[in-house]
């Protein structure tokens, strides 16, 4: 019976795979209400946050620690990779996304294609 348990545990351990990825920190901003002025304020806070994030992470390896250190700048909370800012009562729309330093970077490979080469060969 012990052998059966050992085989079950070993089978489970071999069947489990771990996919480790480095994730970019996320942000979530919740507006005070659904009024136009509050939504406009939410987008202004987003722009200022992303600008500040670029300056905070210059020369720093650990982005998570930087965000944890700067929670008081926006009266925010940083839990499980999400930097959450609640404006006012927080009963309005929310805005979320990734906090990147450069939004033009991509890890996808660019596939080159030549129509002339495809036509000839």
Quickly describe the structure.
This protein has 121 residues and is α+β, with helices and mostly antiparallel strands. It contains four helices and four strands.
Secondary-structure map with pairings?
Layout: H1 2-15, E1 26-30, H2 36-56, H3 63-69, E2 76-79, E3 82-86, E4 94-98, H4 115-120
Parallel strand pairs: 1-3
Antiparallel strand pairs: 1-4, 2-3
Signal peptide: 1-20
Keywords: Signal
How would you describe this structure to a colleague?
With 121 residues, the protein is of the alpha+beta class. The chain contains 4 helices and 4 strands. Residues 1-20 form the signal peptide. Keywords: Signal.
Task: Point out poorly predicted stretches.
Answer: none
Structural shape: extended
Number of strands: 4
Q: How many whole angstroms does the radius of gyration measure? A: 23 Å
Q: List the total number of helices.
A: 4
- Kindly report how far apart the N and C termini lie: 63 Å
N-to-C order of helices and strands: HEHHEEEH
How is the largest sheet built, in terms of strand order?
A: 2-3-1-4
Strand content: 15-25%
| Overall residue-averaged pLDDT value | 82
How does the helix and strand content classify structurally? alpha+beta
The main sheet comes to: 4 strands, mixed
Name the helicity range: 25-40%
């Amino acid at each position: 019976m012990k052998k059966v348990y050992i085989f079950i545990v070993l089978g489970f351990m071999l069947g489990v795979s771990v996919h480790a990825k480095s994730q970019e920190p996320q942000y979530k901003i919740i507006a005070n209400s659904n009024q136009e002025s509050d939504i406009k304020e939410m987008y202004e806070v987003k722009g200022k946050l992303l600008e500040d994030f670029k300056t905070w992470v210059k020369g720093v390896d650990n982005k998570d620690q930087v965000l944890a250190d700067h929670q008081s700048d926006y009266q925010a909370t940083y839990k499980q990779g999400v930097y959450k800012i609640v404006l006012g009562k927080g009963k309005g729309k929310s805005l979320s996304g990734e906090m990147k330093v450069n939004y033009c970077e991509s890890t996808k490979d660019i596939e080159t294609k030549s129509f002339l080469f495809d036509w000839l060969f």
